[in-house]
Please model this.
Amino acid sequence: MLDPASEREGTAVGATIRDGAFTIERDQGPTPGTYKVRIYASSNVQAPAPAGSSNRKPRPMVERIPARYNARTEEVVEIRAKGGNRIDIDVQPDRPSPSSDSPP
Model:
């Protein structure tokens, strides 16, 4: 998903990533400007129910992509009016934080 970086920019647009790539046709794509890149991949597994709540209530799906690529994205791209607009993002998994039991 390309989400406008400010209210002055265009409209959010998105596409499905297949085999590591996506395409948005120019006439359906974003207008020139700055956009935040948000990448989502559902696990098709519901998030656990909060303690004390019903397990039957709908819950969001567990996200497979780290939040730094979607909800807390820092990836920003500039879409130009002319020429090709290629976006390459190397999505990396979150690294487990070192436990307090391990030596420094």
